[in-house]
Amino acid sequence: MALLKKKYPSVRASTLMETLVATVLIVVIFMVTSLILNNLFSGSLKENTRNIDMRLEELSYTISRHRIKVPYDEEAGNWIISASQDRPGSVGTYRSSGGLYKEITLQARETGTDRIITRKVVVRNEAPSH
Fold it and tell me: What are phi and psi of 10, to 5 degrees?
């Protein structure tokens, strides 16, 4: 202790009250920071739809290759996926290719919430000849 007083003569000791106030301030700052981080991480986990987006992309690919017949339903975890033709019998003609196409809607609905993810797929009306 004597060595410290010789090296730093202007440093004073803190009172017990100053130490308690500093400790309370540090604890409050830590609590606020942890609440903010908890809110950020829980929000990002709730909004994570990466797996269902990947499954919808797989289904759109297989539907466009005529490997799945429409209408189609499946369950993936807590999501219910359905594929249907928007307006049965309605087809569009594109001038560039002259082929007939139909529009398929892929819809994923999360059970227990109101969240819905929708994708549209344009598919050639007849199966490709190989």
Answer: -90, -5
Beta bridge partners of 105: 84, 120
For residue 41, what are the CA distances in angstroms to 45, 46, 126?
Answer: 6, 9, 47
Give pLDDT tens digits for 82-119: 998 866 555 554 444 555 777 888 999 988 888 888 98
CA dist., res. 42 & res. 56, Å (int) = 24
User: Residue 40's CB: how many other CB atoms inside 10 A?
Assistant: 10
Tokens (6 digits) for 55: 């499954």
How does DSSP assign 28-68, residue by residue? HHHHHHHHHHHHHHHHHHHT--HHHHHHHHHHHHHHHTT-S
